[in-house]
Amino acid sequence: MISRPTERDIPAIVALNNMFAPEGKTLLRTPQFVEEHLADYLVLRDENSRVVGCVALDEYSPSLVELVGLAVHPSVRGRGYGIMLIEEIADLARRRGYDEMFATSFSEAIFESCGFLKEKLDEFPEKVLRYTRIDRTEVEMSEKHCFSRVLRQTSQPAG
What we know:
The protein is an alpha+beta fold. The protein has a single domain, classed as Gcn5-related N-acetyltransferase (GNAT) (Aminopeptidase), CATH 3.40.630.30. Helices cover 30% and strands 25% of the residues. It has 5 helices and 7 strands. The protein has helices spanning 10-19, 31-36, 81-95, 108-113, 125-134, and strands at residues 2-3, 41-45, 51-59, 64-72, 100-105, 117-119, 145-150. Strands 1-2-3-4-5-7-6 form a 7-stranded mixed sheet, with helices on both faces. Helix 3 links the parallel strand 4 (64-72) and strand 5 (100-105). The longest helix has 15 residues, at 81-95. The chain is globular and about 40 Å long. 31% of the residues are buried.
């Protein structure tokens, strides 16, 4: 079941996210970061209410948001939970009024299956600027790809 996390979930989110940081699949997150962004997370719980998946939004502007921290515990992989988390966070982003969402990932297949298009990272200078300050390796990615998905069509002036 996908739901909003509570403060009690912070240690589980941090542990799950950071499980994949050594491989460069996620950025290290601190409990403070997760607490400050708790309203931007969704979690997937197993039958025992244990957090086995997570994903979050990271705003760049009122129209642009990044999907970050997508993680699914290895014990439940292969069940489509990553796609479910992506679709739920895209729905949350749409409800919040974002026009576009982007993500960086090693996995082309999952994002393309969710309607994302492969982009050049240069299309998102906001990401390059922010992560040059935070973690240079995030923008010096050779195997990671950048993807974007339009959430809402902006109206174009007639002409």
